[in-house]
Amino acid sequence: MSSTTSRRGFVKSAALAGLGLSILPSGIVFSKNKDRKARLGFIGVGLRGQHHLQLALQRDDVEVLAICDVQQRMIDMSKDLIKKSGKRMPLVIMEGPYGYRRLLENKDIDAVIISTPWKWHAEMCIDSMNAKKYVGCEVMVGTTVEECWQVVHAAERTGMPLMMLENVCYRRDVMAVLNMVRQNLFGEIVHVQGGYQHDLREVKFNDGKQPYGGGVEFGEGAFSEAQWRTQHSVHRDGDLYPTHGIGPVAMMIDINRGNRFTELVSYSSKARGLHDFIVKRGGENHPNAKVKFKLGDVVTTMLKCANGETALLQHDTNLPRPYSLGFRVQGTEGLWMDINNGIYLEGKSKKPHEWDNAQEWLDKYDHPLWKKYGNDASGAGHGGMDWFVMHAFVEAVKRKIPTPQDVYDAVTWSVITPLSESSIHLGGETVEFPDFTQGKWMHRKNEFALNDDY
Amino acid sequence: MSSTTSRRGFVKSAALAGLGLSILPSGIVFSKNKDRKARLGFIGVGLRGQHHLQLALQRDDVEVLAICDVQQRMIDMSKDLIKKSGKRMPLVIMEGPYGYRRLLENKDIDAVIISTPWKWHAEMCIDSMNAKKYVGCEVMVGTTVEECWQVVHAAERTGMPLMMLENVCYRRDVMAVLNMVRQNLFGEIVHVQGGYQHDLREVKFNDGKQPYGGGVEFGEGAFSEAQWRTQHSVHRDGDLYPTHGIGPVAMMIDINRGNRFTELVSYSSKARGLHDFIVKRGGENHPNAKVKFKLGDVVTTMLKCANGETALLQHDTNLPRPYSLGFRVQGTEGLWMDINNGIYLEGKSKKPHEWDNAQEWLDKYDHPLWKKYGNDASGAGHGGMDWFVMHAFVEAVKRKIPTPQDVYDAVTWSVITPLSESSIHLGGETVEFPDFTQGKWMHRKNEFALNDDY
Fold first, then answer.
1. What is the CB neighbour count within 10 angstroms for residue A35?
2. Are the C-beta atoms of residues A144 and A414 closer than 8 Å to each other?
């Protein structure tokens, strides 16, 4: 080996070590070119997919090459969006549930955005990686432990990056708190909380025409998510939607990057809310009043971490309640909670033993990404965070670099659902948390949102 | 049996059945006389005991017949209080740790108030019941499962009522919410939360002169609670102080009265706060900086109930944080949380999916006891609730009736500590919750604070 080669090899390794990329996506060729466009295909253009589609159409650095879906109504709505955008009409595929495979045959497509019912995610992710596409997948990427492993194996085998589009990691307050955590404002983190506490009754039931409410139908007689999501509440008892709650706090305690979840236990309350809703809105003689829902109204999950932190997650989607993700980030110097918009920092808060209004701190520690892109994001969905998650994915695709949330994050956050089901099924037993990184967590570095780039 | 006797027997049973007294204190003679005085003895007149003593001295319906303690400083402070009150100086006993047994020999004493270190509670409760005294005991009544059973057996054997002085059951907002629960405002209760989240670092450490802070001593070199309470943080990992969090919500879901806790699991975070505090305030060379504290900074516990509710408890006393008991009471129609002072009731709150300021609801449903006695209580400790717990105990003693919180409540709330220790010790195993009522929970009725009497 010539000294030049050696030197080049050293520079490359050192640079990568600096990035903490202890594993590298091997399927992509690295590029410094930020100017080329990301050429996307959309698998699933239901309401959520259309939302992503719209964000993509607004960007100058994205070309939409293909869309596919199984329903004419969704295809028509998407075509309208594309027409209104003035962009070129892409290839439109409606060839049944496996029509997406034809989309994957298109060699010009760099990346796919998957927004389909949960049960399709793993298979579609794996097929897409096999076709050498970057994958941006809606939460979650697998519904069983086995599926999560299959996704990991596919990512490792193909070397293709997979990013679960966990938008809450980009919520403005969450990113400010991440910034504060990194600047050690909370001291050593000891305990975190999150959850999904959202009255979904009008998402789980509708009249078959409108997406939200208006009736108590689900399954075939319903529209949009109620067509498929509600079945999970009939058949499964567990934390069915953990990723919005766990993703943001997992990033703060370096999960899969020097830390990992080691075990988990869940308890589930009685199930009353969905049946009550059907009876209230549809009457006790409505056929759906006979359905037995397995999902407890409030599912609580505790997790433990290799570095000694505890995490608490709550899932609460069947009862009347205001929306709250219930975040709490607590360390040796103080804590943040979102429910009361409070921050307390010892020696820094205005008064001892009293909450400061969190907003002052959140403004002061506004994340560089939000400072730079806050205006672009405003108007995008979910308070702007959808813009950021799309931005991060597109930047990774354009530059051919790893995505800031990777396959290990995706499966770690997703697997909480089947693990919580097991724990509940076993009567509240603590179950082991799989190490999807297979030891790599000990060496990986946390690179999520380190600067104002993506 | 003559028909008269039979009739009288029937009337008595029916009346008692109406009261739901499926077990009756057999050691006391029932009385309708509300006018006689309650004659009290005080076992332990440290700072907490003195607080109770003061409340007792303020009442016209109480005579203090004896006090005892093991420390001259506490005796002197108590004598000052008594002198200032203008009441007669009681018998004063300072004869070592078992001096209280001489107090119990006094036949004129109806009832004792026990405010001593935790490890003494069970033994003192049992001795007091054996001496035919009503027992009002500070939280908690036993530190092991076995001790809790011994307390139950003593109560059942002697027929003497025991009330753990769980004051938070009488907090004004808690009682208003209890009132709302009973009027079905929240619908069927599905999930409850509570806890003890209180920065106790200046309780656990002081300078040996003042009760709170000023130094990092504990044990023999410290004063007041730091003399003994801190040892529990050295040697035990569990929810060390569950009763303020669980008592109020247990009453709302009829625990031991048609419902019971069936199982429990606890996770404990790493322990950092107490060591950090010693180093911050005393320097890293202070001898106490070498102490290894076993108590995790945040201990989280989940419980399940026979009727399908879940409960969540948090214990968080080692870190800088504002005080919060973290209550949440959630049913099929809505929920209350204290951290954000919010109530949401479907179809009744001002706006869908938005919190009402809880205060409007709490005012509207102010409990009859607070309406009647709020003025008397104002100025008493802990926002008035200490007045109510003393009032309830004294009324029961005067009338020779069962106490509104009984021995089963006391042990059920106390036993969470040793159960959570077991669960953590076993690596997060769900452990069985003992049924201290031995089946009586199925028939007992909830009579706590049903009206404006006591």
1. 8
2. no
Characterise A432 by phi-psi region: left (phi > 0), alpha (psi -120 to 50), beta (else).
beta
Shortest Cα–Cα distance, B165 to chain A (Å): 26
CA A369 to each of CA A317, A374, A377, A404: distance values in angstroms, whole numbers, following the listed order: 31, 8, 10, 13
Does A332 sit within 8 Å of B428, measured CB to CB? Answer: no
**Superfamily of the domain at A4-168:** NAD(P)-binding Rossmann-like Domain (3.40.50.720)
Binary contact (A310, B322; C-beta < 8 A): no
- Token pair of A283, please? 């009457």
Asked if the domains A4-168 and A169-372+407-442 are classified in one and the same CATH topology, the answer is: no
Q: A169-372+407-442 has which CATH code?
A: 3.30.360.10
Say which range, A159-168, A404-413, B29-38, has the weakest mean pLDDT: B29-38
* DSSP structure class, residue B397: H
Closest CA to A341 of A322, A321, A355: A355
Could you tell me how many helices (H) and strands (E) chain A has, helices first? 16, 15
| Angstrom distance (rounded) from CA A309 to CA A329 | 11
Distance in angstroms (rounded) separating the CA atoms of residues B450 and B454? 9
Nearest to A42 by CA among A51, A33, A34: A51
Distance from CA of B369 to the nearest CA of A (A): 29
Contact residues on chain B for A296, CB-CB shorter than 8 A: 310
Q: CA-CA distance, A175 to A368, in Å (whole number)?
A: 9
* Model confidence band, residue A22 (pLDDT cutoffs 50, 70, 90): very low
Find the mean pLDDT for residues B127-133: 98
**Chain A residue with minimum CA distance to B319:** A332
Q: What is the pLDDT of residues B187-212, one digit of tens each?
A: 999 999 999 999 999 999 999 999 99
Chains A & B: contacts with CB separation below 8 Å = 151
B215 vs B280: CA distance, rounded Å: 11
The neighbour count for residue A58, using CB atoms within 10 Å, is 15
Ordered by start, the domain boundaries in chain A are: 4-168, 169-372+407-442
| Alpha carbon of B297: minimum distance to chain A alpha carbons (Å) | 7
